[in-house]
Design goal:
The complex is a heterodimer. In chain A, strands 1, 2, 3, 4, 5, 6, 7, 8 and 9 form a 9-stranded mixed beta sheet that branches. Chain A is α+β, with helices and mostly antiparallel strands. Helices cover about 30% and strands about 30% of the residues of chain A. In chain B, the strands form 4 sheets. In chain B, strands 20, 30, 31, 32, 33, 34, 35, 36, 37, 38 and 39 form an 11-stranded mixed beta sheet that branches. A 9-stranded antiparallel beta sheet of chain B has the order 5-4-3-2-10-9-8-7-6, with no helix packed on it. In chain B, strands 24-23-22-21-29-28-27-26-25 form a 9-stranded antiparallel beta sheet, with no helix packed on it. In chain B, strand 12 and strand 13 form a beta hairpin. Classes of the chains: A alpha+beta, B mainly beta. Chains A and B meet through helix 5 and strand 7 of A and strand 33 and strand 34 of B.
């Protein structure tokens, strides 16, 4: 976080790369003489900084669990009423749709699935990344740019693909850039993911075309407007922040 | 009497007996005496004792009492006597024996110069088809008292990948053996099966040194026979053994020597620093049983269907040109050249005479000569060379659910048509085909009276890679005038699984060929392509019936030249 951001009076927006410990040290170093009300404001600010860091750590945990194929651990990051938008599908409920996506779909990556699976997620430092803590500190929204290693089956029903599957192939692997636009909720002292929406900047694979239970790992419903998969809507809920104010 | 031994059925049509374990045990009794050999067996090991230690594999203590008798202790086990045979190839000794009273044995390649050894542990009754020889390979050395074990080992390699050989064994058996893969190889039985078709077998390639290698293959899905030999690239000699049961279920267990000719070397597509000492198999689970390896077993994934099942599948779904098709990712753009045209294609020798009207780029009407009503079909057409059109469509309502792939050369008023039909005497869902040559009749065109497209062997020996869509690339090796093989690449770019099928090659023009193949005893597909070797692009049609129904689908891929083998001379009639 830039030093200038600490001197403002407006909303807190965190930009990627911040580190709470350094920030907290800066807060106190820059405030040798404070009134009681200043101290209250600083306490509130610190709380918000802790929230920002918690959200960032939550996203990092998501990436870490995904990269370790720890799909059950990913579930622990979600709120009970969470929903995930992924590959043209909406997965609803931590123990229903979200579990289905991560355990039944991502968890079967070795079986070669027609819809995409993320196999590695790399956080990118991006000027458009942002986390915004709502007033009241009960919810937050965030945008994270990522580089994703993904794979999906080559369209099935072709003898050459059948042959490729038998030698461990039959998949297309690619690296894409994408954006997570997430909503978080604080449950007591813990932040959880309430909504996780991933959009590839240039999708390369087939989105989900059927829903659960017809598709055992499928979504609860399909996104009707797939244009968002191709071009993330600008200024959805987080406008670009040129600087933190 | 014919000098060429054409079998009653080619290898993929032979119904090899599913031998039982006890039948195999009975037939293996003879192996107590060791393998037979047309050449004199070597006495290189006679009077010697060897202890072969392998990494994570068997420890074998041998005493060779004569040219064909040995005693073996496995690990700390009791010694047992067995017959054996040995042959030498330069400094290498290849010896083979079975373990009496069992269905297993060893073939060992010892390098007398380096004291390194490669052990093939071979056995029967290790797979559903019990006659199929299984193998586990271990690498090790000859233990010598007072000497440190050597650090080096023989090991798998891609240094043989791409090479091809003609071999003539001391038995008189001649083969062409092509190695376009690190998992599989091609073999053409020139004498045992008349050299009409090529076949493929799961194979191992092991490097001894830069000029000497070990090769093995098992004729999985056929007789299950193993052929294993050491070969020397300098002297072009081989020494090895063959073990299995032939089409009469008789035991083949013999040692052989041979002399060869290198027929070529095609390209490899791995990274330059990849020497093939590991074979990465993507998402395939790690082996869980001894001897496990990738084996293409097409009838396991494409079981044969009955006539009733075929009819039900066709009724359920018949689709022409489904746009979601991984084989068509690089297809040529559709051609409008036929739109608005009316023409008749007249094929020779009682072939069809078909009149066409092309309403638009996807809809045609056709009728046979003498018929009045037109029948409408969906079609696709491409222009693989100037004024040459390939188009295809189903013939709805025909009793065998025919599909047509037609090439029309407007410059020469010539046409060739491949008529696909469902069903063969072997499988109801297998396509059969008839290729017709003929002429184009239309206003302002005078067709030739004698000239026709013709079958050709110009592509035989060549290898082309075909890139269909992201992640889907294969290689064709045009192995004989009547067959070809296709290879799927591994993620590393090395050749992987491979299979073969009967094929036909027709020359349309210089550098333009109509090629078709049948995936017989496989998934039953008929593929028909026009290959342009100038543009290195093809266009074509796949005709296939499976449990999901009947499909006629487009194919399109970009080619690269992978080189070729100089093998046409081996298919000349009257070759001495």
């Amino acid at each position: 976080m830039r030093q200038s951001s600490l001197q403002g009076r407006r909303s807190f927006v965190w930009k990627a790369g911040a580190a709470l410990s350094a920030t907290a040290a800066s807060v106190f170093a820059g405030a040798p003489e404070r009134t009681r009300s200043d101290a209250g404001e600083m306490k509130a600010r610190l709380a918000r900084l802790e929230d920002l860091n918690a959200v960032r750590q939550l996203h990092d945990a998501y990436a870490r669990h995904l990269n370790e194929c720890a799909y059950h651990d990913i579930l622990d990051l979600f709120a009970d009423d969470a929903r995930v938008e992924f590959a043209g599908g909406v997965f609803v409920g931590k123990d229903r749709g979200v579990r289905r996506l991560f355990v039944e779909h991502f968890g079967r990556v070795k079986e070669v699935l027609p819809e995409p699976v993320h196999t590695f997620l790399q956080r990118e430092t991006h000027e458009h990344d942002a986390i915004e803590i709502a007033a009241g500190r009960l919810t937050a929204t965030a945008r994270f740019h990522v580089t994703v290693h993904a794979e999906a089956a080559i369209a099935p029903g072709c003898p050459l693909v059948d042959m490729a599957l038998q030698q461990g192939g039959g998949v297309i692997k690619w690296v894409e850039t994408g954006i997570f636009e997430n909503v978080y909720a604080r449950e007591g002292a813990t932040w959880k993911i309430r909504q996780l929406a991933y959009r590839a900047e240039t999708p390369r694979s087939t989105p989900f075309t059927s829903t659960y239970p017809e598709h055992p790992g499928g979504p609860d419903r399909l996104l009707t407007d797939l244009s968002g998969l191709r071009r993330p809507p600008a200024g959805l809920h987080l406008a670009r922040r040129e600087e933190v104010v | 009497m014919p000098r060429v031994n054409y079998p009653r059925e080619q290898m993929h049509r032979i119904r090899y007996t599913k031998l039982t374990e006890s039948q195999i045990a009975e037939k293996l009794q003879r192996t107590k005496a060791g393998p037979v050999s047309a050449s004199a067996l070597s006495d290189a090991l006679t009077g010697k004792s060897l202890k072969i230690v392998t990494d994570g594999g068997p420890v074998l203590s041998y005493t060779f009492s004569s040219v064909n008798k040995l005693r073996l202790s496995e690990g700390d086990g009791a010694a047992a006597e067995s017959g054996y045979g040995a042959l030498t190839l330069e400094q290498l000794v290849v010896f083979s024996h079975m373990v009496p009273g069992t269905q297993r044995g060893y073939t060992v390649i010892v390098d007398r110069k380096t004291s390194l050894a490669t052990v093939f542990d071979v056995w029967f009754s290790g797979y559903t088809d019990k006659r199929e020889v299984q193998r586990q390979i271990s690498y090790g050395y000859i233990e010598e008292r007072g000497k440190q074990p050597p650090a080096a080992r023989h090991g798998i390699t891609n240094r043989l990948e791409g090479k091809g050989f003609y071999w003539k064994q001391d038995t008189g058996v001649e083969t062409l053996e092509l190695y376009p893969s690190v998992l599989y190889s091609n073999f053409v039985e020139l004498t045992r099966f008349g050299g009409e078709l090529s076949f493929c077998g799961a194979s191992d390639y092991i490097k001894i040194n830069d000029e000497q290698y070990i090769y093995s293959r098992v004729e999985c899905e056929f007789s299950g026979t193993m052929t294993l030999y050491a070969l020397d690239l300098y002297t072009l000699k081989q020494a090895g053994m063959r073990l299995g049961f032939n089409e009469q279920d008789a035991l083949d267990y013999y040692m052989f020597t041979g002399r060869g000719e290198m027929v070529g070397q095609i390209a490899q597509f791995e990274r330059f620093d990849d020497s093939g000492d590991k074979i990465a198999l993507g998402n395939r689970p790690a082996p869980t049983r001894k001897g496990e390896r990738p084996v293409y077993r097409p009838l396991l994934t494409n079981p044969a269907m009955s006539k009733e099942q075929v009819e039900a599948a066709v009724a359920k779904s018949t689709v022409a040109f489904n746009p979601r098709n991984a084989m068509a990712g690089n297809k040529l753009p559709p051609s409008n050249l036929l739109v608005g045209k009316q023409l008749t294609l007249r094929y020779d020798d009682g072939g069809p005479v078909l009149s066409y009207r092309f309403d638009d780029a996807q809809t045609l009407r056709w009728r046979r000569e003498g018929e009045t009503p037109w029948r409408e079909e969906k079609y696709e057409a491409w222009e693989p060379a100037t004024n040459v059109i390939m188009f295809g469509h189903l013939l709805s309502g025909t009793p065998r659910h025919d599909g047509l792939a037609v090439v029309v050369d407007f410059d020469n008023a010539l046409t060739t048509c491949v008529q696909g039909m469902l069903g063969t005497p072997y499988m109801a869902n297998e396509a059969s085909r008839k290729t017709w040559f003929g002429v184009v009749e239309m206003d302002g065109v005078a067709p030739p009276r004698y000239r026709r497209h013709q079958f050709t062997d110009e592509l035989v020996g060549r290898a082309l890679t075909w890139h269909y869509s992201p992640g889907l690339t294969s290689m064709h090796v045009y192995t004989t005038p009547h067959s070809f093989s296709w290879i799927i690449f591994l993620e590393s770019g090395a050749g992987g699984l491979e299979w073969s099928g009967p094929a036909e090659y027709v020359k349309i023009r210089d550098d333009l060929y109509l090629f078709n193949w049948l995936e017989e005893a496989c998934n039953g597909t008929l593929g028909i392509l026009v290959i342009n070797t100038k543009t290195m692009h093809d266009c074509g049609i796949g005709y296939h019936c499976g449990t999901n129904g009947l499909s006629l689908s487009s194919i399109g891929a970009q080619a690269r030249n992978a080189g070729g083998y100089d093998i046409k001379k081996f298919y000349a009639l009257g070759r001495s």
